[in-house]
Design brief:
With 226 residues, this protein is an alpha/beta fold. The protein folds into 2 domains: 83 residues, Methionine synthase domain (Methyltransferase, Methionine Synthase (B12-binding Domains), Chain A, domain 1, Orthogonal Bundle); 130 residues, Rossmann fold, CATH 3.40.50.280. It contains 10 helices and 5 strands; from the N terminus they run ααααβαβαβααβαβα. A 5-stranded parallel sheet has the order 2-1-3-4-5, with helices on both faces. β4, α9 and β5 form a beta-alpha-beta unit. α3 runs antiparallel to α4 and α5 crosses α10. The chain starts with a helix and ends with a helix. The protein binds cobalamin.
Length: 226
């Protein structure tokens, strides 16, 4: 595949999101499939730069909430075409995550990207959606016995509840690992709140999760030998 064909498709995805033009995004997404391009790469280099630019326009006062909503609809129109075609690894026992966006926050695009990548990596994902009440994370972890809980927040006004959620999860299930993320979150905050890890994108999130599962499995094996 010639590099410039790929780049042209990324540009159409980006422009389509930016101009809230669902038709352009859907057609470009279909071309991603027709040309057998790497779906994850097209999301990262086409759709996401589009929504990031939307954020900048909103900050400058050139776009308002209505435009942001239409842009995110355009982005989802593309994801709906692409996501069903992501190759999934086989689901393996003892690889489960609970994921959700914290209470008061309805920004779920980032969370859905993370969810999709975990899904593709063979994890069983329990998705609580967005605006999730604090205790629901605790209850869902207990119900599913998931090894990792992933918390997402996109606003400085909502992210602080993560520290309380982490505290309550650790009280009930000390062995469970909590990973946090979202644009306003960083490694220092994650450490302050007592999170086990922080990742700024889906790739790093999966890398950490796989390492965690390997460690948990070896501890589990060790305790059965002892
Ligand atoms: C799209 C958008 C919306 C859409 C959301 C649609 C949807 N279904 O998600 C709509 C229009 C609904 C919206 C509404 C609002 N928004 Co808004 N929105 C955005 C925007 C433009 C993009 C966010 C986004 O999706 N980015 C793309 C994704 C892929 O990136 P991401 O979320 O960061 O996720 C990546 C990483 O962070 C990480 N990650 C994310 N979660 C997790 C979790 C884990 C565990 C890990 C490991 C990693 C991880 O991996 C992801 C993939 O790489 C941002 C601006 C910006 N620059 O971010 C503003 C922004 C977040 N919104 C903002 C605001 C203020 C609002 C409103 C309050 C506006 C209003 N006055 O009504 C409402 C909030 C409503 C609410 N209660 O939540 C502010 C927040 C400011 C703050 N306080 O921090 C921002 C920053 C804009 C701004 N500069 O002012 N918004």
């Amino acid at each position: 595949m010639a590099g410039d064909v790929r780049r042209k498709i990324w540009a159409r995805l980006q422009e389509g999101v930016l101009n809230y033009d669902e038709e352009i995004v859907v057609n470009a997404s279909r071309d991603v499939l027709n040309y057998n391009l790497d779906i994850y790469e097209c999301i990262m280099k086409g759709l996401l730069p589009g929504i990031e630019e939307v954020g900048e326009l909103y900050e400058r006062g050139d776009y308002f909430i209505a435009e942001m909503l239409m842009c995110s609809d355009a982005l989802y129109a593309g994801l709906n075409v692409l996501l069903p075609h992501i190759k999934r690894e086989q689901y393996v026992e003892k690889r489960q995550i609970v994921i959700g966006v914290v209470a008061g926050d309805i920004h779920d695009i980032g969370k859905n990207i993370i969810k999709m990548m975990f899904d593709a990596a063979g994890f069983k994902v329990h998705d609580l959606g967005c605006d999730v009440p604090l205790d629901k994370f605790v209850d869902e972890q207990l119900r599913t016995d998931a090894e990792i809980v992933c918390l997402s927040a996109m606003m400085t006004t909502t992210m602080n509840s993560m520290s309380e959620i982490i505290k309550r999860i650790k009280e009930k299930s000390p062995g469970v690992k909590v990973m946090v993320g979202g644009a306003p979150v960083n490694r220092n905050l994650a450490n302050q709140w007592g999170a086990d890890s922080y990742a700024d994108n889906a790739h790093n999130a999966i890398k950490y999760a796989l390492e965690t599962i390997t460690i948990l499995k070896s501890l589990d094996k060790q305790s059965r030998i002892d």
